[in-house]
Amino acid sequence: MWFSVGLLSLCVILAFQFRYRWHRPWLGEQASTTKGVRHRYTLLTYKDSVRGIQFGVDVPDFFRFELKRETAADRFFKWVGLSVEQQFGHDGFDSLVYVASNDQHLLNRVADSPALREAALKLFTRIAGGCPVRRVWCAHGQLVVQLRRPGLFSRKKDEHHLNLARTSALPFLEQMAKALRGSRQPDAPVGQRDPYLLPAVVLLSISTALAINGAVFLSRPLLFDNAFLVDTAPLVRLTLWAGSLLLLGLLAAHVLLLARSARAHLFLLELLLVGSFGAYSTAASELREANIEWDVSAPTLREAPVLRKSTSRSRRSGTSYHLHVRDWRDASVSRNIKVSRAFYESINPGRTLVFEERAGYFDAAWARLVGAKVQDPSSR
Question: pTM of the prediction?
Answer without folding.
Answer: 0.81
